Amino acid sequence: MANEDYIQAAIASRLLPDRLSDKERDHGHVESYIVARNFVLYQWLKQPDRILTWEGISKDKKTNDFIDQHNVSLEVIELAFQFCHRYRFINYGIL
Fold first, then answer.
1. For 40-50, what is each residue's pLDDT tens digit?
2. How does pLDDT run across 6-52, given as a tens digit for each residue?
3. What is the pTM of this model?
4. Which pLDDT score is estimated for 2?
5. Residue 59 pLDDT > 60
6. What percent of the chain has pLDDT over 70?
7. Taking Cα atoms as reference points, which of 47, 52, 49, 39 lies closest to residue 8?
8. Burial class (CB in 10 A: 0-12, 13-18, 19+), 43
């Protein structure tokens, strides 16, 4: 995936693609977190009719490729997933 896809995923989710939101900043996340957050958003926006789970992301080969490409840890991706899920940037509108 091109970085442009991740940027568009953040914009589509009403988040700035290159900055932390106030809620994220309040949780003490670091700047590298933004890349992980945009990756999570992109994974959900690819198939918004399916629930995105942490188990699904953590075991996906695309996640391992992303970690290698962007030097982001699985723990940071998990923090991003938890934030996006908690504040309903992913998995909304699914019955």
1. 999 999 999 99
2. 888 889 888 888 888 887 776 555 667 889 999 999 999 999 999 99
3. 0.75
4. 58
5. yes
6. 91
7. 39
8. buried
- Cβ atoms of 31 and 71 closer than 8 Å: no
Q: What is the mean pLDDT of the chain?
A: 87
Task: Please write down the HEC assignment for all residues of the chain.
Answer: CCHHHHHHHHHHCCCCCCCCCHHHHHCCCCCHHHHHHHHHHHHHHHCCCCCCCHHHHHCCHHHHHHHHHHCCCHHHHHHHHHHHHHCCCCCCCCC
Distance of alpha carbon 66 from alpha carbon 5, whole angstroms: 13
* Tokens found for residue 15: 């988040």
d(C-alpha 82, C-alpha 29), whole Å: 12
Q: Both tokens of residue 27?
A: 């949780």
Tokens of 46: 């690819």
